[in-house]
Amino acid sequence: MTLGTSWAIDWTRACAAVIAEHRVELITLDRDIGDGDHGENMDRGFSAVVGKLDDLASDATPSDVLKLVATTLISTVGGASGPLFGTAFLKASVAIGSEPQLDSAAVVALLRAARDGIVLRGKAETGDKTMIDAWTPAVDAAADAQAAGEDEAAVLAAAATAAERGAEATEPLIARKGRASYLGERAIGHRDPGAQSTALLLRAAASVAAGNGEAHSSDANTSGTES
Ligand code: ADP
Ligand code: MG
């Protein structure tokens, strides 16, 4: 089994659905240690992406889908997270090239390029209490799963579980990047909103790959026929 354009499209839809569902939770997390707009920012961005999916060409590759996500997030999401997630999806789209189907190695390359793009842009290190604290364990777990011979869905599931643990592990940290860094010790005890949204996006990727995500369809590009 490999992951094609319909996986990328369904993942995008699943991201929009899960972010909409967790909008208030992300707002609350960002209200605790930031300015309270993270849920709003992400919801606006992914809703805009869904509105553009029908513009994809019928022969669009997974890379084309990720590029559409990237450009839309960059142009519609304000704050720190728009350019950071936008860069992540852009670098991921470049990393997977024009391959119509992604194998487990390509999935690891996608995740690694996304993480590296965020680091390049935001300069956060592990333990700075940012989305990187979800992305880096996710990349490491994905690479381990791939090296152990796991398939794409299992690689994504490993990434999602590691991202969820990474997000939770931001709670005791002091922030060294972003708005939360102004709070010093007052950030302790609060989960980083960007790490939480990262975990949601990666769980969505895994769920769709496993066949139980939002709007799963057959492995042909159905962008022209879906409403
Ligand atoms: P803003 O902070 O501008 O209001 P958001 O609330 O949408 O933007 O996003 C905040 C999230 O962005 C944080 O929870 C954190 O995960 C992430 N973030 C902020 N700065 C950085 C950075 N330099 N590197 C990586 N992630 C960052
Ligand atoms: Mg904010």
TrEMBL record:
Record's keyword annotation contains Membrane: no
Coiled coil (UniProt feature): none
GO BP terms in the entry: glycerol catabolic process
InterPro entries, sorted: DhaK_L_YcgS, DhaL_dom, DhaL_dom_sf, Dihydroxyacetone_Kinase
One annotated Gene Ontology cellular component of this protein: cytosol
Residue stretches making up the DhaL domain: 6-207
PROSITE patterns: DHAL
Pfam families the record matches: Dak2
SUPFAM superfamilies per UniProt: DhaL-like (SSF101473)
UniProt KW S-adenosyl-L-methionine keyword: no
Keyword set, alphabetical order: Kinase, Transferase
One term of GO molecular function: glycerone kinase activity
Name this protein carries in UniProt: Dihydroxyacetone kinase subunit L
Organism encoding this protein: Mycetocola zhadangensis
Lineage: Bacteria, Bacillati, Actinomycetota, Actinomycetes, Micrococcales
